[in-house]
Amino acid sequence: MKNLFSILLALNLTVVSVSGQELIFQKQKFELKNVTASVVKLNKEEVVKVERDLKALPFDVNKLGETVDEPTYLKLMNFDFDNGVIEVKMLSQIQDPSPFQGAQGFIGVAFRIDENDSAYESIYLRPRVGRSDNQFARNRTVQYYAYPDYKFDKLRKEADGKYETTAPVDLNEWITMRIEVTGEKVYMYINDAKYSTFVVDKMKGKTTHGAIALWVDIGTIGYFKDLKISKK
């Protein structure tokens, strides 16, 4: 029988400090990687606010595939994850003004991040199109990618539709994302659904273990809370 242990990281804390590129949160350390981050109050609740730092990592609309789906996240330090469950609540808004007209509120989780932030797996959402009247747009609400070799654009060229799907989500609302990782396979559940919303039959990344991070991309204001990790 496999041993399970859980780490509950409550993001509505009382003591918070930021020093350099680290954010200390109830004795837990997070590293800022190409993002700005702080603890703020949203609807009278303390949450973590994360935005991509365009000074640290510029964005070029003419080189979309090269400058998005990058390591732009708040990474949990001193924790190694291989298989298990990651769950977090997140809320996405679009910056006003936005540096990217096509911003969709890109928000999600990166995992199995190597020591140098040079390779990892990720699943994220585009909440802006989650309830679109256009079915083609809805079909791109959920995105898997493996950094650095399999970003969204390459996956669309090689296997259009296989690594994306729909999810009934929207901007400005709390979304619960739960990811279950077992070997090369990952299942994603949205908002406490009984059955998975998305499955990746075989992940394409190079890593088998590593860090976990709260991820955002261009034009997004991301809020996170209630991160829970169960490692198998």
Shape: globular
Q: Report the structural category.
A: mainly beta
**Total strands:** 17
Q: Assess the beta-strand content as a share of residues.
A: over 45%
Keywords:
single chain; 232 residues; mainly beta; 8-stranded antiparallel sheet; 3 helices; 17 strands; globular; disordered N terminus
Explain what this protein looks like in three dimensions.
- The chain has about 230 residues and is mainly beta.
- Helices cover about 5% and strands about 45% of the residues.
- The strands form 2 sheets. The protein has a 9-stranded antiparallel β-sheet, with no helix packed on it. Strands 1, 5, 6, 8, 13, 14, 15 and 17 form an 8-stranded antiparallel β-sheet that branches.
- Strand 14 and strand 15 (about 200) form a beta hairpin.
- It is globular.
- The model is unreliable at about 1-20 (pLDDT under 50).
Task: Describe the secondary structure blueprint for this structure.
Layout: E1 5-9, E2 16-19, E3 22-25, E4 28-33, E5 35-42, E6 45-52, H1 64-67, E7 73-76, E8 84-94, E9 107-113, E10 120-125, H2 135-138, E11 142-147, H3 152-159, E12 164-165, E13 175-182, E14 185-190, E15 198-200, E16 211-216, E17 220-231
Antiparallel strand pairs: 1-17, 2-3, 3-4, 4-7, 5-6, 6-17, 7-16, 8-13, 8-17, 9-10, 9-16, 10-11, 11-12, 13-14, 14-15
